Amino acid sequence: MTRVRDIMTKKVVTISLDETLDLVDEIMTSGHIRHIPVTKGGRVVGIVSQRDLLRARLSSLGDYSSGEDRQFLQAVDVAKVMTKNVRCADPNESVVHAAKRMIEARIGCLPVVDPEGDLIGLVTETDVMRHFAETASE
User: Which of 14, 49, 66, 98 has the lowest tally of Cβ within 10 angstroms?
Assistant: First the structure.
């Protein structure tokens, strides 16, 4: 049985609570990343997704130029838009169980934490789909 630790992304980009959305936008755009865990002392305290970023932008609906959009993003702290109460995965959890939890919660990733609660990876819907596509018999 394949475990989360076998398919998770180990090099995870994180962000701290005191950063602003312009940095999140820059990281997501340049790194082609859709989820960024928010950490404090190595522990996951939240997560920011592309959806959260879009929701923040939509809340400021208006006829903004790109410069005004950048100013808006610089003024919004990560802590204001991040998802709190993050569901996390155990590295020894089966991929099937993690996939079912992601489907039921309608989320695109699970931060993976060790027994002490420190972030050690991230398993995304893409990781799960890749795993099932590679292991499916045709």
Answer: 66
Instruction: Determine how many CB atoms are found less than 10 A away from the CB of residue 46.
Output: 21
Helices and strands of the chain, counted as H and E runs: 7, 5
**Count of other CB atoms within 10 angstroms of residue 113:** 20
DSSP string computed for 59-112: HT-S---HHHHHHHHHHSBHHHHSB-S---B-TTSBHHHHHHHHHHHT-SEEEE
Kindly give the pairing relationship between strand 119-124 and strand 15-16. Answer: unpaired
Q: Which region holds residue 124: left if phi is over 0, alpha if psi is between -120 and 50, else beta?
A: beta
Angle at which helices 125-135 and 95-105 cross, to 10°: 130
Task: Report pTM.
Answer: 0.84
Task: Give 97's contacts (C-beta < 8 A, 6+ positions apart).
Answer: none
